[in-house]
Amino acid sequence: MNRAIQVLIRHRSPIILAACVTLLVTIGVLSGFRHLQLSLTEMLLRMTIVVGLYVFIGNSGILSFGHIGFVCIGAYAAGWATADPDWKQLMLTGLPSFLQDEQYPFLAAQAGAALLPAVVALPLGAAIMRLRGIAASIATFAFLIIIQSFYSNWDSVTAGASSLARLPTIVDPWIGLVFAVGAIAVAYLFQISRWGLMLRASRDDDVAAKASGVRTVRERLIAFVLSAAIVGAGGGLYAEFLGSMTVDEFYLEMTFVTLAMLVVGGIGSLSGAVVGVVVVTFVVEFLRTLEHGISVGTTTFALPSGSQEIGLGVVMALILILRPSGLTGGREFLEWHGDSAASQLALADRAVRAVEVGVTQIEQHKSEPEKDVSVPT
Amino acid sequence: MTVSEFLQNVIDALSLGSIYALVALGIGLLFGILRLINFAQGDFITIGCYALIVPSTDVTARMLIGAWSWPVLIPSICLIVVVIALLTDVLVFRPLRRAYSPTLMIASFAVSYIIQNGVLMIYGSRPKAVNLWSELNTQILIGGLRLPLLQIVTIAVTLVLMSVLTLFLKRTLIGIQMRASAEDFRMAQYLGVRGNVVIGLAFAISGMLAAVVSLLYLTQSGSLSHVMGVPLALYAFVAVVIGGMGSLVGSVAGGFLVGIIVTFLQAYLPPDLRGFRDAFAFAVVILVLLLRPAGLIQTKSAIERV
Q1: In angstroms, rounded to a whole number, what is the distance separating the alpha carbons of residues A64 and B187?
Q2: Could you give the ipTM of this predicted complex?
Q3: Which of B104, B109, B245 to mutate to test the interface with A (most CBs of A within 10 A)?
Q4: Distance CA A44, CA A275 (A)
Q5: What CATH number does the domain containing B285 carry?
Q6: Averaged confidence pLDDT in chain B
Q7: Per-residue pLDDT tens for B178-209?
Q8: CA A203/CA A193 separation, integer angstroms
Q9: Where are the domains of chain A?
Q10: Do B241 and A143 touch (CB under 8 A)?
């Protein structure tokens, strides 16, 4: 019993995050407003995607502009699996028959939506994870455009520029919640795993991490594939939420909005990803309400339509300027100051020891050939 | 394929390449000095186009500045776009001087998003037909080749602008300071180059290039839309990467190369694959990054040191 409480306390930040999100959604759903339910569902889908983004961007420190490409792949995978077979036979003539003639259940479709992006991410990541800094970001951006171009022209399989339609719309706030909380759990477990820790070490100091034996490219690749799978599942949810979709749904606009959420909350922490989604959703919903107009007495004040987008852009620019590490400042929820400093000290200590071990090994390695030379003389 | 068809394609490629080269030059200039990949360069072009019809927001656009004669029109549009470019620097990028390159890229995304939605809010999403300098859309006959006058003007304007810019960068004091800053910004500052002046000037020049592109592009396309600059920025961005990030010669060479690749892919790809042209173009970007990360023309500052 005591041990269980200790575990809870140790992992308090993701538990509290998940609890807060659950509470928020429960209150929203119980309030009974239809419009609120839709907004909350969309918020949860975006949360799944942004947490997935965080798994790669937050832990590796490499900005990716390409993850919405994985969302697109995931969404279409789910779409192929669940669209009405009659419609598929008519419109998607290039689809293999196991997809064309069948209609799979939701969870099977979701598995496909997570798997296919991961399969694409593996070779792509293996190639571009060797690049540094801005070059890697540019390569991901190029990937986004390739996917967009590919999917919007592959008429016989994706219905091209027209929409992929006749999908069941079964995603409600509760399904969204399950996936968002699941994404938080996976992201947290990855973050505290040895892979996650090594990746974060390479984010903070690439050279020191390499010197301590971290295989940077491999750790990045693991995070890249995992995050592709999470955002792909988010894409699958989108497919079953919208009921019909086009490729343009998953392009620059969504890239901007999801990155804005991550940046506003703080790229460096899981709490940042979650907080960012909630805060940006509230700001956008608030502006949307103002666009519809607020009556004061007999007069109605309304912002011109488009204010929510401009407002979001301005909020994002302000955060970048005033609080570059986001609202959470790269810290986890309820990670009190002394605690964090102590754990950082411990980490630093471990790093120093690791380097010492490395140096000793190198010296041993160096001294060995010399011995060899000394034997004949 | 006949010889004249081929020559026609070459001219098409050069004129398209000119446009890309001008946009890429604007992006390359800022990247060299500021490490900023300015995604909003395309939206500066959009602003240049919409400035022609200000203040009319009618469904069928009426032109105010656009109806002026060209010696007044060109400087006015340049002035407007330069002011906007400088404003984005002062409001957004100047407070971010110390930020990392990807942060700057996100910031330019935000600027682009604001401009696009601002234009959308004022003018709506329906494209507007605009008739600018229609006399340039005539064709002239040279030795059996039908050449649109506009393409020749585009190529000529680009050559003139590039010569002027080269002279400016090589012969004037401030131009030399700009090149020094592109090479090593911090060192240049230590030696007395005023950072904000150089950066402001770089924004002004990119604004001017965007203004010129907007006029050339609009004369050709004849229609306004709030996302019209996006494809131009995307291709120019490819050009900058292929050419070598931060190298101005590289940006221009990359621009022409992209123009050539795109035109010839469009002309000679089998019809089924033509739609995938962009996918091929951006696959080239990833390949270049992998095989030659510093681009075709490498700058010294691109070499990362520990």
Answers
A1: 30
A2: 0.84
A3: B109
A4: 12
A5: 1.10.3470
A6: 85
A7: 888 888 888 888 998 998 899 999 999 999 99
A8: 15
A9: 9-251
A10: no
